[in-house]
Amino acid sequence: MTIGANLKRLRLSKNMSQADLAKAVSVTQPMIAQIERGTKSLTMELGREISEVLEVPIDALLEDSTKQTA
Fold first, then answer.
1. Would you give the DSSP letter of residue 43?
2. How far apart are CA 52 and CA 26, in angstroms?
3. Domain presence at residue 62
4. How many domains does the chain divide into?
5. Which of 24, 32, 55, 65 has its Cα between 20 and 30 A from that of 46?
6. How many CB atoms lie within 10 A of CB 45?
7. Domain that holds residue 30
8. Cα Rg of the chain (Å, integer)
């Protein structure tokens, strides 16, 4: 999964809209949408803020569930 897909999955698991998350981290809703679509990069600082709001470790945003583990 991409960072955007992880973000969307985690956001929805908390029953938050893009607008709710954007307000909580002081960015615009279109910016959250762009990150989820992969057209805008997530900064480390914003990633940290989002992970705090979603109450997940930052690794949850970064993990690639499509990778095969040995």
1. P
2. 13
3. no
4. 1
5. 65
6. 9
7. 3-54
8. 12
User: In angstroms, how far is CA 44 from the centroid of its own chain?
Assistant: 11
- Both tokens of 27, joined, read 């960015």
Q: Which residue has the tokens 């805008």?
A: 40
The C-alpha atoms of residue 3 and residue 59 are separated, in whole angstroms, by: 10
pLDDT tens, residue order, the chain (70 aa): 799 999 999 999 999 999 999 999 999 999 999 999 999 999 999 999 999 999 999 999 988 755 544 4
Residue 65 falls inside a structural domain: no
Listed residue (24, 18, 13, 19) closest to 49, CA to CA: 24
- 65 CB burial (10 A radius; 0-12, 13-18, 19+): exposed
